[in-house]
Write a structure and sequence with these properties.
The protein has 180 residues and is mainly beta. 12% of the residues lie in helices and 32% in strands. Pfam families: MOSC.
Amino acid sequence: MNGIVTAVSSNGEYTFTKPNRDSITLLAGLGVEGDVHAGVTVKHRSRVAQDPTRPNLRQVHLIHEELFTEVGSAGFKVVPGDLGENITTRGIELLGLPVGTLLRIGDDAVLEVTGLRNPCLQIDNFQEGLLKRVVGRDELGNVVRKAGIMSIVKQGGVVRPGDTVKAEFPGGPHRPLERV
């Protein structure tokens, strides 16, 4: 399963959106260089309040550009960086990847998929009603999260728009993504 990077974003301050960049540098074991969410331990405010010593399984946030088209058909205008993601992709089914999938991006960077983003009410502060478009329920009543996936950096490198994304599935039985 392969895709392409369409945008990269980072922000050194706690804001909901992240400005697009020409490139971002991924640092092994930390995340995006200069991004407020980079670090060995949790950096998301709600997680820090619960236990600041927990490992940071949310170092890099990826979201599929196809989601923007989907919510656009319902009248929402969302572009790369708007939902706080670091890497926007196209052509790879991020939400269907199993836990532990390795994503090889560009020449050097390698991410390990840890789980689904658990969207919060800030999405409705950004655009009212958008949260219901990125979190819903399937026909069996199960929660479906569409706001991207989270990962950790296994191998650092520079990531730019236009870079390829190649997924390598883990061995053994695959575990579906859960919120992290």
